[in-house]
Specification:
Chain B: Belongs to the TRAP transporter small permease family. The complex is a heterotrimer of chains A (about 425), B (about 180) and C (about 300). Helices cover about 75% and strands about 0% of the residues of chain B. Chain B has about 180 residues and is an all-alpha fold. The longest helix of chain B has about 40 residues. Chain B is elongated. Helices cover about 50% and strands about 20% of the residues of chain C. The chains are: A mainly alpha (about 425), B mainly alpha (about 180), C alpha/beta (about 300). At the A-B interface, helix 1, helix 2, helix 3, helix 4 and helix 7 of A face helix 1, helix 2, helix 3, helix 4 and helix 5 of B. Bound molecules: sodium ion (NA) (2 copies).
Chain lengths: ~425, ~180, ~300
């Protein structure tokens, strides 16, 4: 209990700096500095630089800017329009109609982009006008988009999983494989919800689609070919073991440049815009990671993580109780923090706890991603809500309410993961066993 | 006024150059990874490839810090600031004050850390055996640029009432 | 006073266990006057940062794989000259000769040496039987250091650069077909899923060394210095025994899981040692007079 005061100071400074609007990376540095000054006589600044240099020059981290760059290139090509043209004929006859293009489109785009916001803007820009024109209920359009775009985080490639893998020193490739099945299950759950709503809701009266013959549908599918090629190259190279996550990211950048060139949308302008956009975004994440690495050093010196882990261990929670406690903890955290920050901020404390409980760290990575996905759509701070606000002009609370069903589906998803842990662990355990395996 | 405009243009160009340098290092990461794959497929070794990629990663981040700040790409929680309404200036003053202090402190110790590597003749532990102070220059320069950017925006905030950062929302959230 | 002691390997690794015992030995021995708190798994500073952290007083004491720093001073790599020694006993003999020189080198880096513990000896993992060094020709061989890259060159193996974190994946996909490491690595990574043979060639035995910041050391009372030195001696002996026991355990596990585990034939061993002489000569070029004195003294005994 002697740690109550230090924890109190930490939390106070953290909330003061973060809450008052200081940039996240710098706020973390400030908190870490306060911790070092109070709890150890070691030179705070020198130790900070040792730690920050080694975390910033990490080779594993190089996959991050590359995947961001790939997303930036795709966002600036005609690829997104093509995807709607290719997908919509197949969705029109499903219960719920073209709302499914939101979900399927996000799922597909999630497989080439590591970012939820990139997924949301790309899919939303093409689908919202089309769906509105056909009089689909607005809450349905907005809600599914907000929810399904978060699949960008779970279906590989995933920035959150890269950051998680780097933080806990687990194989990013394994984490990526672990995300595939849960991502697809979550997408199916979203689609199931849409189907149910289309039957039960009396607001659901969209303009019916003109009939299209099978041949015509097939013909339209040619628009999907470029995306499918890119997915095959990026994901295939990883799963077949030809490339590491970093190398797959390099494949992705080159592949999307080739696609853009083939479409004629690669110009000096789009190239340099995509490059500079990627540089800005990765610098933003790098600053947060730098702050977080210093904070975790500071936490190590204070002994708080060890103390907290001891405290929670002394509660003798069962595995299930611990998971439930963490679920609540992360949902609360997710209201205020973005996903990557909440992962790096807490893993120093949480990792020993889950290791002590014998919880599989790959499985836990997927659990974290689902919870972080929820954070994307919970007010007051949820990136998808911000982006949708900018895109549709709706009030924040309208968008947040539209997204509540998606939030609940994700809570259900956590329990699905608890009951069927194999969803996350089967693929990484069983692919690439190799000869004699 | 003309002098102020010239200074403004010089500083913005300064941040932009940082961003361009960073983008060149991003391209270098891509090149190194491709070369390493080619080497592996043809039975050659690219000694120290992963170390070089790591240095480029650091350079691609540090050089772009100031540029990203100038474009409002660094994330922060602006809830309270928005809530302050017409008193927002005081909130911004607090944020830029803290930001300037921390970034200056960061730059100071980055240079010191760079000096330590130089004084102890620290060498990379990988196959490349690079003297560590060389790649660490990107950290020293990048953090100084960030500190300069913070001082710049703080001064502007105090004297003109606005920090001059415009935020592109989509840009800010691509990281998620 | 409280000293934080960063360590790079997991808490369950025998090096970390020995370190924890050492820490409580010092804490008890000084009556709590000097408390040492270990931080395993790189949870404070990671492996690559530990030496710098202790040199500059960011941590007062730490443990590090010494040969990782041989770029800075070839003497730190004296425990990793390929095929110079071929057993725990020979290795200990070499180390006792080299220690004064290593201590001096550490002192120049503002560090005081306390104790060190060898890793299990490095053996050769292969995907087929190997009776002659010719068999290495064209085999995809993991090169991760200057020494292993040189070995690939000398044997005609195809060097493939694979980081430790990606070893399992590289083996599973056939990117690498052979590598040098201890039996412990094979046990940890379940190498029997991918490769068939392990040859005990005892190529070298790298050491983890524990060192104290020199200024902090000089500020200690004589009593505290004695306690640390005594606890260090106990830890070194305990660690050596643990390393020997662990070697036997992991080799048994490799066998149990269907790998062929045997000592290399005399013919092959002779060829490897010939290669070792080339590499020892190269090491001597970088290690100067001190290096020559060590190797001469070792061979002269
Ligand atoms: Na994704
Ligand atoms: Na949220």
């Amino acid at each position: 209990m002697e740690q109550l005061i230090p924890i109190g100071i930490f939390l106070f400074v953290l909330f003061l700096l973060l809450g008052s609007g200081v940039w996240v990376g710098l706020a973390l540095m400030g908190v870490a500095y306060v911790g070092m000054e109070i709890f150890t006589s070691r030179p705070a600044g020198d130790a900070m630089i040792t730690k920050i240099w080694s975390s910033s020059s990490s080779w594993t981290l190089t996959a991050l800017p590359l995947f961001i760059w790939m997303g930036e290139i795709l966002y600036r090509t005609r690829l997104s329009e093509d995807m709607f043209k290719g997908l919509s004929p197949w969705m029109a006859r499903l219960p719920g109609g073209l709302v499914h293009t939101n979900i399927v489109g996000c799922t597909v785009f999630a497989a080439v982009s590591g970012s939820s916001a990139a997924t949301l803007t790309t899919v939303g820009k093409m689908s919202i006008p089309e769906l509105r024109r056909r009089h689909y209920p607005e809450t349905m359009v907005i809600g599914t988009l907000a929810g399904a775009a978060t699949l960008g985080l779970m279906i590989p490639p995933s920035l959150t999983l890269i950051v998680y893998g780097v933080t806990i020193n687990e194989s990013v490739t394994k984490l990526f494989m672990a995300g595939v099945l849960p991502g697809l299950v979550l997408a199916l759950m979203f689609m199931g919800y849409v189907a149910v709503m289309s039957w039960t809701s009396k607001d659901f009266n969209p303009t019916p689609e003109p009939h299209m013959s099978f041949v015509e549908k097939l013909k339209n599918s040619r628009f999907l070919i470029p995306v499918i090629c890119l997915i095959v190259v990026v994901i295939g190279s990883m799963y077949m073991g030809w490339a590491t996550a970093t190398e797959a990211a390099a494949f992705g950048v080159i592949g999307s440049l080739i696609l853009a060139a083939a479409q004629g949308s690669l110009s000096w302008g789009t190239f340099s815009e995509s490059l500079m956009g990627a540089v800005r975004t990765s610098a933003m994440i790098a600053l947060i990671l730098a702050g977080a690495s210093f904070l975790s050093l500071s936490m190590g010196f204070t002994g708080i993580p060890r103390g907290l882990a001891d405290l929670i261990a002394s509660w003798e929670l069962s595995k299930f109780q611990l998971i439930m406690a963490l679920l609540v903890f992360y949902i609360i955290l997710g209201c205020f923090l973005d996903g990557i920050s909440s992962v790096v901020l807490t893993m120093a404390v949480v990792e020993p706890m889950i290791r002590a409980q014998g919880i599989d760290l790959i499985w836990f990575g997927i659990f974290i991603v689902v919870v972080v996905e929820m954070a994307q759509i919970t007010p007051p701070i949820g990136f998808n809500l911000f982006v949708l606000q900018g895109m549709t002009g709706h009030e924040m609370n309208f968008i947040a309410r539209a997204a509540i069903p998606m939030f609940l589906i994700m809570v259900v998803m956590v329990f699905v993961l608890i009951v069927f842990p194999e969803l996350a662990t089967w693929l990484p355990d069983n692919i690439r066993k190799g000869p004699g395996g | 006024m003309a002098a102020a405009r010239t200074l403004r243009r010089i500083l913005d160009t300064f941040y932009l150059i940082g961003g361009i340098l960073a983008s060149l290092f991003l391209i270098a990461i891509l090149a190194i990874i491709v070369l390493q794959m080619l080497a592996r497929w043809t039975g050659h070794v690219f000694p120290g490839a992963t170390d070089y990629a790591g240095y480029c990663m650091a350079a691609a981040s540090f050089f772009a810090f100031a540029y990203a700040l100038n474009h409002g790409a660094h994330i922060r929680v602006s809830l309270l600031l928005t809530g302050l309404g017409r008193h927002r200036w005081w909130g911004e003053l607090w944020c830029f004050g803290i930001g300037t202090a921390i970034s200056t402190w960061f730059a100071w110790y980055a240079i010191r850390g760079n000096q330590i590597s130089w004084r102890f003749k620290e060498l990379s532990q990988g196959l490349d055996a690079t003297p560590m102070w060389i790649p660490q220059l990107s950290m020293s320069i990048g953090t100084v640029m960030l500190a300069v950017a913070f001082w710049d925006h703080l001064v502007r905030l105090i004297f003109t009432g606005s920090h001059g950062i415009t935020t592109d929302l989509v840009d800010q959230s691509q990281g998620e | 006073e409280k000293w934080d002691m960063p360590m790079a390997y997991a808490a369950t690794n025998f090096h970390s266990e020995v370190g924890a015992t050492f820490a409580s030995c010092v804490t008890d021995g000084t009556g709590g006057e000097l408390e040492i708190v270990t931080h395993p798994s790189g949870s404070l500073f990671g492996g690559a940062e530990i030496k710098r952290a202790v040199m500059t007083g960011q941590a007062m004491i730490g443990e590090r794989l010494l040969s990782a720093h041989q770029n800075e001073n070839a003497l730190y790599g004296v425990d990793s000259i390929p095929f110079l020694v071929s057993s725990f006993d020979e290795h200990e003999k070499l180390w006792s000769i080299a220690l004064p020189y290593v201590e001096k080198a550490l002192e120049e880096d503002n560090l005081h040496y306390v104790y060190s513990v060898p890793w299990p000896p490095q053996g050769l993992y292969m995907n087929k039987e190997l009776t002659d060094i010719e068999g290495m020709k064209g085999v995809k061989f993991r090169s991760y250091s200057a020494a292993t890259a040189k070995m690939a060159e000398l044997t005609g193996a195809l060097p493939v650069q694979v980081e430790a974190a990606e070893l399992s994946q590289a083996l599973a996909t056939g990117v690498a077909e052979s590598f040098i490491s201890s039996g412990a690595t094979g046990y940890d990574r379940k190498v029997w899923e991918h490769l068939s043979h392990f040859y005990e060639v005892d190529a070298w035995l790298p050491r983890n060394a524990v060192f104290v910041n020199l200024d902090a050391w000089n500020d200690l009372s004589d009593e505290a210095k004695t306690v640390i030195t005594d606890c260090g001696a106990t830890a070194a002996a305990e660690g050596l025994q643990k390393s020997i026991d662990y070697t036997n355990f992991t080799l048994d596990e490799l066998k149990k899981n269907g790998m062929s585990v045997e000592r290399a034939s005399d013919h092959l061993m002779g060829q490897l040692q010939e290669m070792g002489e080339v590499m020892t000569a190269e090491w001597l070029e970088t290690a100067g007079d001190d290096g020559k004195a060590i190797v001469d003294a070792y061979k002269g005994e």
